[in-house]
Amino acid sequence: MTPVPINPAALAPPRGFSHATLAGNTLYLAGQTALDAEGRIVAGDIVGQFRQAFGNVLTALRSAGGLPSDLVSITIFLTDIPEYQRQGQRIGEVWRELAGPVYPAMAGIGCTALWQSDAMIEILGTAVIPADRLQRPQ
């Protein structure tokens, strides 16, 4: 099986990576920060950055035919764990708004910095998409 890169036009053009890689019916979602379509980190707090970063993950997921319920694992890298914890209720509301009430296996990992210096959060994940919904790029 040859891995297939997934790079939705709605996301900032990738440089040196793919937004996702499809192998069989497993989609490996690259780490997404709060980049908008022009490649700039959105202004605002960690909740706004979570919304953008998770929205980017979902955009890549949907471009392969996936749904939020297909997510099996999410890892969240954070430059400020205490702030994420303080905003946990609001972040949970954003999650449920974008993905519904289902939560995959998750991990939160503190780090000192992310690739973009203004990024506070980076989210990566894995999804298993049923064959009847799978969309491979042409």
Gist?
The protein has 138 residues and is an alpha+beta fold.
Averaging pLDDT over every residue, what do you get?
95
What profile does the largest beta sheet have?
6 strands, mixed
* Structural Rg: 14 Å
Helix content: 25-40%
Amino- and carboxy-terminal Cα gap: 16 Å
Total E-strand runs: 6
Secondary structure category = alpha+beta
- Backbone shape: globular
SSE order, as H and E?
EEEHEHHEE
Number of helices: 3
Structure keywords:
6-stranded mixed beta sheet, globular, alpha+beta, 6 strands
Describe this structure in words.
- With 138 residues, this protein is an alpha+beta fold.
- The chain has three helices and six strands, in the order βββαβααββ.
- The chain has helices at 46-63, 81-86, 88-99, and strands at 4-6, 20-23, 26-32, 71-78, 105-110, 121-128.
- Strands 1-2-3-6-4-5 form a six-stranded mixed beta sheet, with helices on one face.
- β2 (20-23) and β3 (26-32) form a beta hairpin.
- α1 runs parallel beside α3 (88-99).
- The radius of gyration is 14 Å and the shape is globular.
- The model has no long low-confidence stretch (mean pLDDT 95).
List strands and helices in order, with pairings.
Elements: E1 4-6, E2 20-23, E3 26-32, H1 46-63, E4 71-78, H2 81-86, H3 88-99, E5 105-110, E6 121-128
Parallel strand pairs: 4-5
Antiparallel strand pairs: 1-2, 2-3, 3-6, 4-6
Helix pairs in contact: 1-3
